[in-house]
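Hi, here's the filled form for the chain we discussed.

Project: internal
Contact: R.S.
Residues: 193
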Amino acid sequence: MNIDLLIVIAYSYLFGSIPFGLIFTKLFLKKDLRNIGSGNIGATNVLRTGNKLLATITLFFDVLKAYSTIYITFNHFSEYIFLSGLVCFLGHIFPIWLNFKGGKGIATYIGIIFSYSFELAIVFCVTWLMILLLFRYSSLSSIISTFMVFLFSLFSLSTSMSVFLFIIFIIVIFTHKENIYRLKNQTEDKVKF
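And the returned structure, exactly as it came back:
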């Protein structure tokens, strides 16, 4: 049994599964985020409470938990860098504390790719913002942006990184399957600026 592997899986999952959106809305708004909007625990649903500052704080901490996870792995268990990112990402989506019903993982994804490559983070953020401004759908922005990051990796990064990003893209499609259905039927909620 590889003890290093178990350590990486454990802290990557536990860090990823911290539900900051739920914690902050309970602390500051005295509300259960799971009973608001989409019921997800991410920053986009926190925004539906009407509190933009709290949504921004949630976004920051969801990004930070992923970045911190990869930072630890890079410095101590670098051979497991992609596994750590994947487990952290899955931790946010399937947190043990919430019966494995978490968020869609986009803020966590940003933290992961930011820790891997500043260029990837820029590709994601610029694409996400452009799609949002054009169509005003957060879900569509997330799906297209993760795909663009994967495409970009094919021309500039390692095969291992591209495989990792493709796996993440497939998971993002899965977490957004209801959004895709609503987009198809033109019932998806638009972001209000």
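Let me know if anything looks off before we file it.
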